[in-house]
Amino acid sequence: SYPDRSEDEGLSALPEAERISYLAFHRSILPTLLRNFDRASMSSGVEIRMPYMDWRLVTYAFSLPAESRVGKAYTKRILRDAMFGLMPENIRSRKLKLGLSAPTPEWLLGPLRGYIMDTVNSTSFLKSKIWNGPAIRDFTEERMKDRAWGWDDCGLLWPCINAHILMKGK
């Protein structure tokens, strides 16, 4: 079943930054992170806790104006400002986020290579009405030949592979 979205009805009246924050927190980024961290921890038997998720802190942060949370091209502005002089500046002001990611490029070139190639060459994949099967096959073959899978490339192929798997199960 789908979550109740009745509380989303007033979002169009919010300023854009507030609406984006709300949707990221309730509908996209945070739920995805929580799900992925939960799966990763369960698969390895390790307890993982997402930091700064105390409801009082979250409620307080959402009560602040957007310019207090994001500013000068930095997220987590309150935390960054609070850490001024308490942590190395190159860490405090770093924009690149380092997260937990699956080693998808290595999987595609290693243990999943045969499966991926069989999938993109299958008749059902090539004749899909949802994506351009021959173009995706050519894209995949080129990267396999050059052993050149980048994260962006994986991000283009992976959703099609997953959708194909789900549709085959029908």
Describe the structure.
This protein has 170 residues and is mostly helical. It has helices at residues 16-26, 29-44, 55-63, 66-69, 77-82, 89-92, 104-109, 113-120, 123-126, 133-146, 151-168. α8 (113-120) packs antiparallel against α10. The two termini are 18 Å apart. The mean pLDDT is 83.
Structural class by helix and strand composition:
mainly alpha
The number of distinct helices, counting runs of at least 4 residues, comes to 11
Fraction in beta strands: under 5%
N- to C-terminal distance:
18 Å
Could you tell me the radius of gyration in angstroms?
21 Å
The largest sheet is: none
SSE topology string: HHHHHHHHHHH
The geometry reads as elongated
Helix content: 55-70%
Name the poorly predicted regions.
none
Give the mean pLDDT: 83
Please report the total strand number as a whole number.
0
Produce the secondary structure layout.
Blueprint: H1 16-26, H2 29-44, H3 55-63, H4 66-69, H5 77-82, H6 89-92, H7 104-109, H8 113-120, H9 123-126, H10 133-146, H11 151-168
Structure, briefly:
The protein is mostly helical. The chain is built from eleven helices and no strands.
Features:
single chain; 170 residues; mainly alpha; 59% helix; elongated
